Amino acid sequence: MAVTIEKIAWKGWPNCWRLSNGVVELIVTSDIGPRVIRYGFVGGQNLFKEFTEQIGKSGEPGWTIRGGHRLWKGPEDRHATYALDNGPLDVRPIANGVVATQPTEPETGLQKVLTVTLTDSGVTVQHDIYNRGLLPVEIAAWTPTVMAQRGLGVSGFPPRGTHPECLEPTNPLIMWAFTDLSDPRWKFTNKYLTLRQDPENSRPQKLGHWNAHTFGAYFLNGEVFLKEYFPANPASKHPEFGAAFEIFTNGDFLELETMGPVTQLAKDENLVHTEYWSLHKGVVLAEISDAALDAALLPLLRR
Questions:
Q1: Is beta strand 214-220 parallel, antiparallel or unpaired with respect to 152-156?
Q2: How many CA atoms lie within 13 A of 66 on its CB side?
Q3: Domains, in order of start, for the chain
Q4: What is the tens place of the pLDDT at every residue in 187-236?
Q5: Is the pTM value of this prediction over 0.90?
Q6: Checking phi first, is residue 80 left (phi over 0); if not, alpha (psi -120 to 50) or beta?
Q7: CA-CA-CA-CA torsion for 91, 95, 96, 101, nearest 10 degrees?
Q8: 296 or 232, greater pLDDT
């Protein structure tokens, strides 16, 4: 199917870009960002969260979540990570997509670029962070995708094994001080961790882990959003105790987050972090079990 790329007004922002192959559509902002603020089937639900009171606005004096998909500097830092993205940026069409280039952040000296391309098989999102400062920096790409309410977030562990055949550890499972594994929104199987978004439960929850084939899925109203990331070097240093994937929820949303390795950048050097997205209809998860999740997800994964 041919991909159409058009500049449109969307929910109060006059300068958005719509990508569609006739089946799915994405909305990329240029009045703020870089953000992908919508991903859904044409005429269907937005799998991404929209903070209605913030959509269509710009120029706020503080960082604003808005929803959608964004690019952050990792590991998390109260100053550098929350650099403002409330102003205009340059968005230019390319074959099957757009390139969104943010001005250099005065707070950090970093410049963020989002390249979004759409094909019949899915979406490729390339994240670039450039060091425009004078001094070297050591950072990682961090890519939170803010999902709409009332869905189920899922991620998979590395291949499982048996004892005593497999004696060495395979991956970290990373906790935060507010992580509570007794919270009923968490459910674990042998192969998967799951976290349900519940608007009636505002307590934040978060876990991280590492998998050579990192992925996060979100089940919502019979549809599934899937994002995948393949670390190039399993021995590379990932931030926050080795996280390549993190999942977070509160009462407003759930985030699926991937993290690249820590990279040292000299002046004008950049890092690249690529995710692969897909959207699927008619996927019903009867229960949270290895068999049910295998049946729902394995046919959809690229690897």
A1: antiparallel
A2: 29
A3: 4-297 (2.70.98.10)
A4: 999 999 999 999 999 999 999 999 999 999 999 999 999 999 987 566 78
A5: yes
A6: alpha
A7: -20
A8: 296
